[in-house]
Amino acid sequence: MKLLKNLSLSMVAMVSLFGMSAYGANITIGAVGNTGTLVGSVGGNAFVFGLSPVLQGVGNSKVFLTIDDPGGPGSGHEKGYNTTGTTEFNTTPSGTTALLISEVGHAFVGGVEYSQFEFALNATGGAPNVSINSIQVFQATAGNLTGFPTFGGNATLVFKWDASAGNTLTVNDYIPGLDNTEMLLMVPSADFGPTGSNIILYMDAGSPGQFVSNDGPDKWIARQDCNNFGLTAVTCGPISTPEPSSLWLLCAGIGLLSVASRKSIVTMRMRKK
Predict the structure, then answer these.
(1) Cβ atoms of 134 and 108 closer than 8 Å
(2) Which terminus of the chain faces fewer neighbouring Cβ atoms within 10 Å, N or C?
(3) For residue 1, what are the contacts with CB-CB under 8 A and spacing of at least 6?
(4) SS3 of 80, please?
(5) 57 backbone dihedrals φ, ψ, rounded to 5°
(6) What is d(CA 176, CA 57) in angstroms, rounded to the nearest whole number?
(7) Of 219, 216, 199, nearest to 83 (Cα)?
(8) Mapping DSSP to helix (H, G, I), strand (E, B) and coil, where does residue 70 land?
(9) Which of 150, 121, 93, 147 is nearest to 219 (CA)?
(10) What is the pTM of this model?
(11) Residues 6+ apart with CB under 8 A from 255
(12) CA distances for 254 relative to 3, 11, 249, 258, angstroms
C-alpha cells in the first residue's frame, strides 16, 4: 500500500506541475502559482515558479547577486554575475558575493532533485515587467573569478537558457517591496559535477527583449534549507517511485493473498458441513 501511495503522490505532483506549466514556450511569472519549463541548451530542463511573498534574509537565506540598471541614455538593459573579484557589467559590488554549492537548498519535483535560486525583481509600478534574456549557471573552483564567460578556464557552464522567438520568460513585479521574491528557479542538481565548490549565476535582462529593465536593484537569493514555498509539486524529500518489477511483484503478491484467502474460506465451509 505504501508503494502505491508513493506512486500516486509522485504522479499527482507531476500532473499538477505539467498541467499548469508552459513547456519551452512564452512563460510569464506574474502571479502565485505560475509555472514554466526552461529548456536548457546546456544541462537539463529547469523549472520556474511564481511565489507567494517570501522575505529575503529569513532563515539561512543569502543575497548573492545584485544587478542594477544604470539608467540614462541607452538604459533598459542589465546583466551581471556574482563574484568577490572585480565585478563586470551592471553588477553591484555591495550586494554581490561568492556562493558555495553547500549554501544552496535542494528540493524535489517528481522524485528528481533540483537546486533552488530565488529572484527578486524591482520594477516601476507603471511598467512592472522585465524580459529575461539569458540565465547561465557555472560551477567554479573559486568565488573570486572574473572574465565572463570563460573565467580563465576555472569555471564550467552547467546550465544555459537563452530566450528566442516563441521561447521567452517575462517576470512581473507583482509583489511590492524590495525585500520580497517573485520567482523560484530550480536547476537540476545532476547538472553539477564533482569538481568546483562555487556557483556563478549570470543573468541578462531587459532590452532587446519586449520588456526593458527600468529600475532596480534586482537580486538573486539562495536559501540553504529546502523550502517548498507552499507549492504542491515541490517536496523537500524524494517521493519514491517503485520500479515496474516492484509493481509486478506487488500485484502478484496481492493476487496470491487473494487466492489463499479464497481457499481458506472454502476449507472452512467444507469443515462446517
Answers:
(1) no
(2) C
(3) none
(4) strand
(5) 80, 5
(6) 16
(7) 199
(8) coil
(9) 121
(10) 0.79
(11) none
(12) 13, 22, 9, 6
- Cα dihedral sign, 150-151-155-161: negative
Instruction: Extract long-range pairs of 11-17: CB within 8 Å, 24+ residues apart.
Output: 12/232, 13/109, 13/110, 13/232, 13/233, 13/235, 13/239, 14/109, 14/110, 14/233, 16/232, 16/233, 17/47, 17/109, 17/110, 17/233
Dump pLDDT digits (tens) for 63-121.
Answer: 999 999 876 555 789 999 999 999 999 999 999 999 999 999 999 999 999 999 999 99
Longest CA–CA separation in the chain, Å: 100
What confidence tens digit (pLDDT) does each residue in 172-187 have? 999 877 678 899 999 9
